[in-house]
Each structure stands twice: as C-alpha cells, then as structure tokens.
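Model the whole thing, not chain by chain.
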Amino acid sequence: MTKLLSMSDAIAAHVRDGDSVALGLQMEQMIPFAAGHELIRQKKRGLRLIGPISDILFDQLIGAGCVKDVVAAWVGNVMMGSAYNFRRACEVENPGTPGEKLKVFNLSNFAVALGLQAGAMGVPFLPTRTARGSDIPKGNHFFYEIMSPFANEHGEREMLYAVRAIVPDVTIVHVQRSDAEGNAHCWANFGVMLEGVRAAKKVILCAEEVVPAEVIASDPNRTVIPGFLVTAVVEAPLGAHPSPVQGHYKRDDAFFQQYHESTKTADEFQVWADTWIRGVKDVREYAGRMGAERVASLRVKEHAFAAATDFGY
Amino acid sequence: MTLSSNPSQRTKTAGFTLGELMVAAAAREIKDGEVVFVGMRLPLIAFVVAKRTHAPNAVGLFENGVIRATPSPELIYTMADPPNIKGATQCLDMIGVMSLLQSGRVNLGFLGAAEVDRYGNLNSTQVEVREHGQDARATAGVDAGSTKTIRLPGSGGACDIASLAHRFVAMIEHSRHRLPERVSYITSPGYGNGRGWRKKVGLPRGGPSAVITTKALLRFGEDREAFLASHHPGVTVEEVVANTGWKLKVADDVLETPSPSGEELAVIRDYDKKGFWTS
C-alpha cells in the first residue's frame, strides 16, 4: 500500500498543534529542513521539539512561534555557535508562548538516546551512569535517581539515573531512498534516528528518492526503517539542505554562516524566513531560490560506491 | 569556543597562531593507541595532528556514531560532514558509541565550555552576567547590580564525555569570567569540590587531566585542584594568575608550553587550509 503524500498533505494530516515532534535525529546529517519549513508555513503551534542537537532547524521553528518547549541536549548553529532565536526565547520571550520564556528540558546526548531507546523498547526508563554530579538532572523530570537492584562485584548497590522514556507523537526523518510503503535505506551516521523511529507513535519519512520495492529488498541490511512503522512517505529531493545527505549533496557551510549573520535580531529573522520559508511554496521553489549554480556546487563531485554485497545462496 | 578571528595573527613574530599552539598542545594529550572521543572544533584538528604525527594508532569516536582509524580526508566543520563518513571504520548509531564510553572503553575525550572552574567542572548551559557583560560572581559582594542569564547551546555530549571517559581535556578562552572559582551550573562534572567527589556522587571513573586555555595549560594535583603547569610563549605567569578567577596555584617547575613543531604546523595548515578553526 502506497503511503506517498505531498509534504503539505503529510504535515497537515499527521502533525497536530500541541504534538511532540522529534527531528534532527541524525545529528548534522539529513536534517529534515523541508518538513520543518512546512510546519512553519502551516503555522503549527504548541509543539514540543525533541532531538539531541538541532543545527538551526530548532532555532527556525522557535523563531516562527511554533514551539511550546524543547527537550534537547544542544540547540544552536554547530559551526557558528549560538543561535539567536533560541537565545531570545530563553532570555527574553518565546514567540510560541507570548509573555513567557521558552521552557527547555536539558538533557545530554546520551540521555536523549536512552530516553528514545526506552520508548522504543516499551519500558518506562533506562538506567545510566552519565550525568552523576551534573546539574542537568536537578529539577528535571526526565531524570530520577535510583539504586541499582543488583550489587556490583564489591557488594555495593550503586546509585544511577533512570532516564524517562521519550515517546514522540511524530518522528520526522530524512533518508536517501525509500519505497512507497516506507521501507527505507539510509547510510552514513544514524545518531538516534533508529530509536526515534521505533519510539514514535507516527513516522513521517522524507526521502531524496522513492524507488521500486525490489531496490530496497535487494539490501535488507541497509533497510534501517521497516515500512510498517512509517505513516507517510514524502519524496523530497534536496529536502535536507543545508545539511548534507551522503551520496547526494554536501553540507552548505556558507548557508549556515549566512543564517548566523542574517538572523541576529527578531526582525532580521522574519525577513530571512519570508525569503527562505514563507516566500516559497515547497522544496522545489526553495531549490529555485537557491539557484542552479548553488545546487550544482553541492552535488557529489567524486562518487565512492561501496563494494557489491552478495545475498545469494 | 571562539578564538581570535584575525588571520594576520599567523604572520606575527612567533610564526604560529594561538589556535595552532592550542591544537598542537591538545594533540600531544593523545597517546598512541588510545581511543579518543573527539568532539568538535579545535579537537577535530588535534585528532588529525596526533594521527599524522605521534599517535598513528589512535582511534576516534564521534557521538553521531562514526568511528575512524584514519583522519577525515579533508577539513570538516561538523562530525557528520560527508568526508568524516567516507572511509570510516564504522558508521552506526549514537547509543553504540555512548555505550562504549559508559563501559569504560574510551581513554580520552575533548570538551569545550563557556566556563571551567578550580576543580575542572564545566558549564556550557547558562551563565549569569552583569548587564555590562562582566561575570556576576567575579564581583559578587561588591555590587550585586542587575544580572541576566545568558543561555548557551547546552551539553550536547559534553556531560557524557566528562562523566564517563577515563580522562578529559577542556579547551577554553582564558579570562577571569571564563575561569571562575566555581561555575554557576555544572553541565559536565570535573572533580566537583575536590578529591573523592566523583566516587561519592557515583561517577565510575575519570575527570579532567588538563585544561588548555588561550594563555596556559593547567593540570590537576592530588587534591584535584587545577594548577598552572605551563604558560604559552609570550605570556607571563603573573598574567595567567591575574586572569584566573581564583588564586591559581603555580607548579614549582612551571614551564613554557612547547611551540608547535614544524611537523605539527605542516599538518594543521595542510588540513585547515583557510585557517577557519586555527587562524
């Protein structure tokens, strides 16, 4: 059964105001910017954003007033440092909750991974040794101090943190290729994407290309997302720009630098968003605004194919 | 962390930039054969320098799930840049590499921060500043003034590395407000309030082995307090002490931080050709 939808239909049908949305789970690779921009165009409100690090997509959603709170380890612009909408929302006022500052539940990367893994496993928490002695767990209901039920080799029952399970209403990911049912191939680093897909109630899968089912079935070890977990499939070539998609396009470093330079005030951000988000209908028009030359400059210059894999018997 | 962005520094009398000095110092913290949690910015290049000079058998772990036994073939701005994926030893998930960190398989991790304190605790979450930009606690008691909170990006994987690696190295700009006596928020635990603290709070191992600043290299004594081990060329001991937010102990045999060697500089400049990270 095909699950193919347009980006606007997928976001309209499957993300409701007030949802918790996990995205940017592959760290700096394959961030679903096109889907995030559609959330902004459709004026989604009251969202909880979940992710380890976000590299400017969270900053854009916060600046556009879509966000109620954030569950994350790091929010900013990875190559440039801070991101200004996030800072303003935390220090002055969050556009998504007028009169109030942005609520942030600080986690560490490992804690995000464990929370999503607990959600994926269907258990209420997972234990960890991380963050002992840190201020991150203080007054933070994603952490609870527990004593190990089992003694260690010295006969001691150690103190640990339980990290609360995270179950996103919707996880949005971007991959290289999928079939129409959402069986998807992805290569390069996964970050916490596998856990985020398994934990979520709904999954919106964006792909550079939709391919015949036989292509996906030819390499089941690369099928990191089984289609039965996927709610909607969106073909979104260039939909992760300015983040990279291995084998399709590289990171547009200049775009991150330009974003940093041109979003220092709230007004400047609105101008930026009018240009790159509200001023275009979809990722095709967005690519048009980039220009053919810029798009071409990001494309793979030298292919590096993996060795063929024989599944024969 | 942000260092001077003035590329002309490269041509000044010393023949190398502060960024290059710090990268070389960081590279020397990596021993051959060690498993290193690399981290972002200057440590990315330190790993490359170590691999191409004295530590060819070091293995790099990246929190996005990448494991590399060779440096990435060209300069990267983030750990997920395509050149860091191509030719990797393994490319999987975060929970895998974080599990190796938690189970004690990682010798060394690198971290940046906004503040590092006397016992090597790190803050990268939020800082309190006075309205004119000076650190609130540096002058506490003199004038409470009006303060505001500056929100920083947050832990990322820093808290995990500081909690779980066998040792870690922090890199930071050297000033009184960047090196306060106590950080206002412990994002990443160092030695807490001194000897025995890590075990008491339930940390399995580890702690800082060095802090590489823009002026000096600090190490930690048996009491787990930071002391000045070496000052960078052109920086006096007095200047380091005067720019530290507590009464910094100075080693009896305090040294000058060795300048980067020709070999180290060649690797740095070959890799960071435009000086994005090291100018």
